[in-house]
Structure formats: structure tokens, C-alpha cells
């Protein structure tokens, strides 16, 4: 990791978040901070509430209690499209790409929020629309270079191996030029080599673009290797929060998570 990386101020603050689905308490009184430029992992056994927490952060779920502030602004209720507009992008546990579309076109869909011209403007101002299109294409090509997927840019995503599909999904999230990138199990189902590649890309995104990253990951080796900080959930409660070394030595975490054959 780049020794000159500088972790900044708190960019995202969740305070006393509680979320239930009917009788199921998915999250109980969770508070957490994420600092600018850091890589923060959320770990915990199945059903611990990790995905729910990510969904609260990007406005998909609305907690019954607590509040979230992002870049200093408190949000009582924020919707997913607003989160995206404010620079929060995410990938999903199950790949959510258009399988019949090419890699290039899939990544281009990540630019949607950046497109300023509407249908009428497109009809009236053809030149401006063309220039905007060229600008977006250039950005997408940069991402394709960055992720080293030039050779498959025209390939329909459904024909790619799983590891590459995950990389394309990362590309689509990057196309939105996010400040905060949420990754839900970016390495699930990958072989060792694919995991190493993905780790490198995550570290490079953080390093080169300064993107703050919150990720959910089950692979402990990966989590401990790439994270600045690890937050541990168990049965919807926070039981650990600290550096990888601190979390590794936390008895509650060992009992709840690391001690199990997860
Ligand atoms: N939309 C929903 N409707 C009802 N219950 C839900 C919903 N989403 C999550 N839950 C419940 O909330 C709890 C936390 O689930 P969540 O998916 O957040 O856990 P997780 O830590 O991400 O699990 P996993 O590692 O298996 O993905 C579980 O008991 C789950 O069944």
C-alpha cells in the first residue's frame, strides 16, 4: 500500500441505526464512521446485517431509527438515485449487468447520471450532444484501460467468465466517478488469481482516484490485507471496529466470527 496515502476527515457517519423487517431486527443501534480515502471492510457471519448496512448507506433501506450524514449533511431519508447523484456508487452481491450488452455499453450505463442532455436537447442541439457523447466515451475508455479489459470491450458480458464480469461491474460503478464506492462481496466465487487481480484493482482505485471504499467480504485474508479498518457485525449488532490487528485480537470477534468455520 502507498505509504503516502492520507486518510482524511469523516465523510460518512451513521448514528444509532436500527432497522427491522417485520419481526426481524436486521440492525440494532449501529454507529460507524467512514473516513475520506480509507478502505473500510464490514465483516460478520451470514445474516449479520452487512448488506442491510450497505443498503442503509446508499438509501435503499430507510432505518426506523438513527440517521446518516454524508459529507456533513444529515439525511433523514435519501433515495438511491440521490445517493448516486451525490457520488455514492455500488456493486452487488449477485452481478447486476446487462448480459446481452457489450462490456463497453455496460460500463457506459454507469455514465447515465452524468449525462446532461435530454431527448429534446438531443434533437435540437446535435453538435452539443455529440460532444457530450465523445466525452463520456473517452471516460469509459479510460476505465477500460485502467481495468485492463481492452481485449473484451466489444464482448457481450454474458459470455465472460465470472471473475471478469465482476471486474466489468466494478468498471460500471467507476464510470459514475464516485467519491464513495460500496462493494458487496467483490470477490465472492472467484479463484485465487481472480481475487488477487480484484484486490489490486481495489487498491489502485483507492490510491489513484482517492476513492473511499466500503466493502463487504468473507475472505478474511483479503479483508486483513487491504483494509485500513474493519467493522464487525454479529446478529445486527456491532461487536468490533478497529485496525485489522485490533479486530484480529478482539475476543468477541474471535468468538463470534473468526472462531467459526465460516
Ligand atoms: N428485504 C428483507 N426482508 C426481510 N428480511 C430481510 C431483508 N433483508 C435482510 N433481511 C434479514 O435481515 C437480516 C440481515 O440480513 P443481511 O442480508 O443484511 O445480512 P448479511 O450479513 O449481509 O448476510 P450474508 O452474509 O448472508 O449476505 C437477516 O436475518 C435477513 O434475513
UniProtKB/TrEMBL annotation:
One of its GO terms (cellular component) is plasma membrane. GO terms for molecular function: ATP binding; ATP hydrolysis activity. Transmembrane segments: none annotated. SMART domains: AAA. Coiled coil: none annotated. Keywords: ATP-binding, Cell membrane, Membrane, Nucleotide-binding, Transport. Residues 12-260 form the ABC transporter domain. It comes from the Bacteria. This is Amino acid/amide ABC transporter ATP-binding protein 1 (HAAT family).
Amino acid at each position: 500500500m502507498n505509504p503516502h496515502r492520507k486518510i482524511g476527515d469523516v465523510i460518512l457517519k451513521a448514528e444509532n441505526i436500527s432497522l427491522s423487517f417485520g419481526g426481524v431486527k436486521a440492525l440494532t443501534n449501529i454507529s460507524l464512521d467512514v473516513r475520506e480515502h480509507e478502505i473500510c471492510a464490514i465483516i460478520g457471519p451470514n445474516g449479520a446485517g452487512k448488506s442491510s448496512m450497505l443498503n442503509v448507506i446508499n438509501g435503499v433501506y430507510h432505518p426506523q431509527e438513527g440517521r446518516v450524514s454524508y459529507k456533513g449533511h444529515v439525511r433523514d431519508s435519501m433515495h438511491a438515485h440521490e445517493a448516486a447523484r451525490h457520488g455514492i456508487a455500488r456493486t452487488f452481491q449477485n452481478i447486476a449487468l446487462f448480459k446481452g450488452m457489450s462490456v463497453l455499453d455496460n460500463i457506459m450505463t454507469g455514465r447515465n447520471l452524468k449525462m446532461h442532455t435530454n431527448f429534446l436537447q438531443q434533437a435540437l442541439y446535435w453538435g452539443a450532444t455529440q460532444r457530450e457523447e465523445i466525452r463520456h466515451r473517452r471516460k469509459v475508455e479510460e476505465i477500460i484501460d485502467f481495468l485492463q479489459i481492452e481485449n473484451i470491450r466489444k464482448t457481450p458480458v454474458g459470455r465472460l467468465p465470472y471473475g471478469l464480469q465482476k471486474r466489468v461491474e466494478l468498471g460500471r460503478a467507476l464510470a459514475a466517478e464516485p467519491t464513495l464506492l460500496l462493494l458487496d462481496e467483490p470477490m465472492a466465487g472467484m479463484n485465487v488469481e481472480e481475487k488477487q487481480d480484484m484486490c489490486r484493482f481495489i487498491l489502485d482505485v483507492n490510491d489513484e482516484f482517492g476513492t473511499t471504499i466500503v466493502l463487504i467480504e468473507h475472505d478474511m485474508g483479503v479483508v486483513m490485507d487491504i483494509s485500513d479498518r474493519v467493522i464487525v457485525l454479529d446478529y445486527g449488532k456491532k461487536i468490533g471496529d478497529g485496525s485489522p490487528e485490533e479486530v484480529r485480537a478482539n475476543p468477541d470477534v474471535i468468538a463470534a466470527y473468526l472462531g467459526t468455520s465460516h
